[in-house]
Every structure is written in C-alpha cells, then in structure tokens.
Amino acid sequence: MDNGRKPSAHEACGDAPWLVLLAAGKGTRLAAQTGGRPKQFLRYRGRPLYWQSVCTCVASGLMGGVVLVLPMDEFEENRARALEFAREEKLPFPLLFARGGARRQDSVLAGLRLVPEHVSHVLVHDAARPFFSADLCRALLQRLREGACAVIPGLAVKDTIKQVDGEGTVLATPDRSALRAVQTPQGFDRRLLLEAHKALNTEANTVTDDASLMEAAGHRVSVVDGEEANLKITTAADLQSLAQAVPCTGFSYDVHRYGGTRPLVLGGLAIPSEYTIAAHSDGDVLLHALMDALLGMIGKGDIGELFPDSDPAFDGASSVGLLARVLELVREAGVTLTHADVTIIAQKPRLGAYKKDIRANLAALLGLGESHVNVKATTEEGLGFTGELLGIKACAIVAGIAKGTPGRAE
Ligand code: CTP
Ligand code: MG
C-alpha cells in the first residue's frame, strides 16, 4: 500500500517525523456547494485539495513520510490517483494509505497504526487546511525535539466567546485572553499519541482534535503561534480562498467604410464630421473593437456570432446597448475588467479634441476609473485606406482578472 519508495537511512534511523494526513471526511457542511463531493477532493492547482498538504511537506524537506487517510468509499480509485501524482512528482518520501473511519479520530487511529515504529514524532493534519506553512511544521518539530510530547498551533481569539446552553442562553463568558483557536498540524510523540487514541477510543470520548485526547490522557500540551492564513475550508464562504486570481486579456481590431448613412459615433459619442459610416449597426467602430476584445478576454467568440448582421434585430442597433450585453457576459464568466486601451486610426476627421470626452464616456460605459481607460488617435500618414479617406479603424486591448472557481477533481 505504498509508493514503493524505501525509507532512506536518515528516515530509517527514526529521526524524520511523519505526517498523518486526514482526507476521509464527508464534508457535509459544504455538500450543497460541492455536489456532495468531499471538500478535500475539490480541484486546486490541478490536483485534489489534499495534495497541497503533501506539496508543503515536500517543500519543507522536514518529513520522512506521509500516511494519507482516505474514505472507505472509492478508496482504491483515490489511492491509485494519489500514487500517480507521487510518481509524476517523484515524491522524495514514502506515501502510505489508510482507510478512514466514521469519526475523525477513527481516521487518525487508522493512519497512526501505519506510521513505522521507529518514527518518534508525528504531525496530524486536516487535509481541509491547505495553507499551513513549512515554518509552522518547523516550529512544532522544534518544540518536540526540545522534549514536548504534544504541541499545537493556536491563535488568540478576536471575538468574545460565550458558552451557551441548548436554548442559546449564555451560561458563561470565559476570559478571552486565555482562549486560543487551535489548528492543525498538531505535533506529537508518536507512541504516546497512539496509546492515547487506543486507550480513549470510546463513543463518550468523541473529540474534534488529537490534543484533546492527549489532555484526557494526562499529558501536557503546549501551544505555539498558529497562522492566520491556515484556515480550514468548512463553509461556502471559505471556498473563496481557493479561488485563484488569473489575469486575462483580449485584443481586437475593426474597420468601417466611410460613405454610408450613419453619422460618425466613436465610443458612444457623436463626433461632428462630414464623414458618415456604412454599417449594419450604428457603425461605432471603436465599441465594436472593444466588444470583440472583451469577448476575446472571456473566450466567447466575436460580435458577429453574438449579434449576426443577418438578424434584423441588430439593424441600426446601438453599440452602447450591445456593449451592455457583452459586459453582462464578462460578469457571468466571473471576470472583472480592470483596464482598456484603445487606438482609433483615421486620417480625417482629426480626433485630438475628442479623445478626453471619448475616454470619459468609455470609462462610464465600462464602469472603470478614467485612469484605467486610455484613448489614442493616430493617422497612417496618408497611406492605405485610412490615408485615402475610405474608412476608419480601431484597435482595443483589455485586461481583467478571472476568479478560478474550484472545480471538482476528476
Ligand atoms: N476527517 C477524516 N475522517 C473523518 C472525519 C473527518 O479524515 N471521519 C478529516 C476531514 O477530511 C478533514 C478533517 O478531518 O480533512 C477535519 O474535519 P472536518 O473539517 O470536520 O471535515 P468533514 O468531517 O469532512 O466535514 P463536515 O464536518 O462538514 O462533514
Ligand atoms: Mg467533521
């Protein structure tokens, strides 16, 4: 049941601690958001969430091995998948697998039983806390090496905590300065923790962390500073912390011919001019380029697909209205537009005097501050179709931030 990796001499002499990684819970409090899939299997950085904890162990260079505790259901499939990751990433330590139990502590005991007997210290960690640091492991292990038998990370509590009864009536207000909110990984003398788990393995002794069992067994438990970032993914709001900000961009270019029936409109602003536009819609070349850039940014094709000129509904359609629809798609795609830079290319009319107003109008239409919108105008020095006064063109580039929503691991 392992990745075939033999313990090194260093590990074999017992001085490298192991991690028991708990990934056997059902994630019931998040079931509605994950479609019932346990939260430790949500996709994060291309792997199931639990793998992030294995990565931190590797990066720390501190651990001698990991026991991954997986749910009974789909145990073989999940084990095979984890072994695949271990192979791909050339995991530098053994990875063993245990079948989890009904309660968290049953899963811990199953994992602890697999830690080799020569190992003196273990860290027990919830896979639902993917953001713990190697520094935290170092601090815990340091205290264990100094002789502690149980060390846990804790944070001072910010809220006043009340003890209440079943009806919600306050029974007591403990002194806040003496309270700590505790986290995992929690570090232990392996043998003593195993003994405590075995000795106190009754229904009455159902606990939510391992330190509780060490306390009940009469051992001294010390607290080191926990980490604010080390949150446990528990409720829907916590899922936000898994969403990664991904920068994205879109670019486009559009051309309109002079000589039609539409008055010249650029960025939603009417430009007094002797030049008119031949176009199916209102012929706002700047907004057309901008809309295509926005669609490019969210991978949604182009305005030709979205608003076909074969459809009479778009005959003379206001580009401002079409832009509103495109911006709705940007929002639906979970992308926040952050910047737009546009260039209008025309020999005539001269546009210098209108750039400021076009910029203000675009900023209002896009819901951006003016410092995040830029409008440039240039000529092509009398060359090409703009130089020959046959038409006008525009380029647009946009930037945004996409929030990667946590998908499910396959
Ligand atoms: N865990 C476990 N075995 C169990 C119960 C929990 O390995 N029988 C693990 C979870 O996978 C999680 C950690 O213990 O990594 C902390 O538990 P918790 O946050 O309560 O997770 P769940 O029990 O899965 O969630 P819930 O309580 O909402 O069902
Ligand atoms: Mg639970």
Layout of helices and strands:
Layout: H1 9-12, E1 18-22, H2 31-34, E2 43-44, E3 47-48, H3 50-60, E4 65-70, H4 75-88, E5 95-99, H5 104-112, E6 121-126, H6 134-145, E7 150-156, E8 163-164, E9 170-172, E10 180-182, E11 186-189, H7 190-199, H8 210-216, E12 222-225, E13 244-263, E14 265-266, E15 269-270, E16 276-278, H9 285-297, H10 303-306, H11 319-332, E17 335-345, H12 355-366, E18 373-378, H13 384-387, E19 391-404
Parallel strand pairs: 1-4, 1-6, 4-5, 7-12, 17-18
Antiparallel strand pairs: 2-3, 6-11, 7-10, 7-11, 8-9, 13-16, 13-19, 14-15, 17-19
Helix pairs in contact: 3-6, 5-7, 7-8, 9-11
Cytidine-5'-triphosphate is lined by residues 22-29, 38, 40, 69, 100-104, 107, 126-128, 232, 234.
Q: What labels would you give this structure?
A:
8-stranded mixed sheet, 410 residues, 19 strands, 60s Ribosomal Protein L30, Chain: A, 2 domains, binds magnesium ion, 29% helix, disordered C terminus, 13 helices, Spore Coat Polysaccharide Biosynthesis Protein SpsA, Chain A, alpha/beta
